[in-house]
Design goal:
alpha+beta; 20% helix; 2 helices; four-stranded antiparallel sheet; Alpha-Beta Plaits
Length: 88
Amino acid sequence: MNICGILVHTRPENTPSVRERLETMDGVEVHAATDNGRLVVTVEADDDGTGADYLFSINGVEGVITTSLVYHYRDPIEEEGCHGTQSA
């Protein structure tokens, strides 16, 4: 599981269209947008991607100027039956 908190910067006039594009992406949620073109975004994914992978993908959205990773949590998903116990 991956959870990333990302600050996205756009031109103020592009904020609504960038928000719409981001919200169509799997696992992306826009939590807030400011009048000066900043969006607070989280990405949740069940893959082994890195924070950089998500930054590059959001940076590729038309209208995005920059992205900044402000939080990243990665926890490997345990396979069923593998819970850290040992058998003798």
